[in-house]
Every structure is written in C-alpha cells, then in structure tokens.
C-alpha cells in the first residue's frame, strides 16, 4: 500500500485539492427527503415549468448544479426533492420528458428540455406558502438556467397569471375555512 495522496483527475489548475472526510459517515450523503404525499384522490398538485429556450436544451450538469444550489436532493421516484427543516419534501422537480426521472450516473451527459417544479398539497406547508416557495424557487432556478418560466399548462408565467393562481388559492382557503366552520 502506498501513502501517496489520492490523485484527483480533471482537477488540473485548481490548486491544492484537500480530501475531507464525508460528514455523513458511511451513509453516503444526507438522508433522502421524506416524501409523504396524500393519496391520489385527495392530492392536489401546484406546478410550474422551466423550459429551455428553443431549440436549446439544458445541459444535465447545469441542471443538477442549479437544483443542488437550491437545496434539492435526488430521492424517491428518482426525482429531486427540496426538504424542509424536518426533512419532509416541500417541493419536487422532475424532467419534463417522460417518465420524468433522473439518473445521477448519466445526468451530467444528458440534455433536458425542461423541468416540472411542483408542490403536492396538502403538504408540510399551507397552500399559499407552498406556492410562494414554489414561485421563488422556480425564479431562482430559472435565473441560473436562463430558461422560460411557464404555468402548469405551458403558458407564460406572467404577473397576471401569478396573481390568478394566488387568487385561486385564497378562494380555495376561504371555501375550506367556511366548510370547516359549519
């Protein structure tokens, strides 16, 4: 056995590279976010899309790094999830190309037409807060990726459309509150 420093390939020109122990020990990374979605019949999905400018596609590495920078981890269903403080998935991200899954082994060499970013309701956060988090995260990701923001149907995400989604969530909350009071 040799006591030589491990060689890092592809690290030329970056200066000294120091190998640090994995803070998660043998677990291999942070724990997978807990995906605790309600059953299909009582589930509602709030979704936004980030689409690559045509005819371009997002490079997989750029997409992976943008998601990581926003706190997403690959987890259940082979899609990315953004956990809250208690490690529950509050937002999820899937490829717009079916089946939507990602493979970390090949992702960096792939190209993607877009990303579906979504919150499953009811979830860890109230619907209005879930939408605000979804919107802020979508805007941050879009700034990194330089794509186009769209609503869940593929229409442009204009300020008017954002206001309409917010109004719909407020109306829904008022209806639920009135129903609960009866």
Keywords:
3 helices, 6-stranded antiparallel beta sheet, two-stranded antiparallel ribbon, single chain, 182 residues, alpha+beta
Task: Report on the architecture of this protein.
The chain is an alpha+beta fold and 182 residues long. The protein is 29% helix and 20% strand. The protein is built from three helices and eight strands. The strands form two sheets. A six-stranded antiparallel β-sheet has the order 3-4-5-7-1-8, with helices on one face. The longest helix has 23 residues, at 159-181. It is globular. The termini are far apart. Residues 4-26 have low confidence and may be disordered.
Category by helix and strand content: alpha+beta
- Give the strand line-up of the largest sheet: 3-4-5-7-1-8
Overall geometry comes to globular
Question: Into which percentage range does the β-strand content fall?
Answer: 15-25%
Q: Using only CA atoms, what is the Rg? A: 20 Å
* Tally of strands: 8
The helix tally amounts to 3
> First CA to last CA: what distance?
75 Å
Low-confidence stretches: 4-26
Q: Outline the biggest β-sheet.
A: 6 strands, antiparallel
Q: What's the pLDDT, averaged over the residues?
A: 85
The protein's oligomeric status is single chain
SSE sequence, one letter per element: EEHEEEEEHEH
Share in helix: 25-40%
């Amino acid at each position: 056995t040799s006591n030589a420093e491990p060689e890092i390939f592809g690290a030329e020109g970056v200066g000294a590279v120091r190998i640090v122990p994995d803070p998660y020990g043998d677990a291999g990374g942070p724990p997978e976010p807990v995906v605790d979605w309600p059953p299909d019949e009582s589930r509602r999905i709030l979704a936004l899309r980030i689409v690559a400018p045509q005819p371009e596609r997002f490079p997989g590495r750029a997409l992976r790094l943008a998601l990581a920078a926003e706190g997403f981890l690959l987890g259940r269903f082979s899609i990315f999830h953004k956990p809250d403080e208690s490690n529950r998935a509050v937002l999820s991200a899937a490829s717009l190309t079916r089946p939507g899954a990602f493979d970390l082994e090949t992702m960096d060499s792939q190209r993607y037409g877009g990303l579906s970013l979504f919150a499953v309701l009811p979830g860890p956060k109230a619907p209005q807060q879930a939408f605000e988090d979804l919107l802020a995260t979508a805007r941050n990701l879009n700034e990194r990726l330089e794509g186009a923001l769209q609503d869940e149907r593929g229409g442009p995400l204009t300020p008017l459309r954002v206001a309409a989604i917010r109004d719909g969530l407020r109306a829904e909350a008022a209806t639920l509150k009135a129903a609960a009071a009866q």
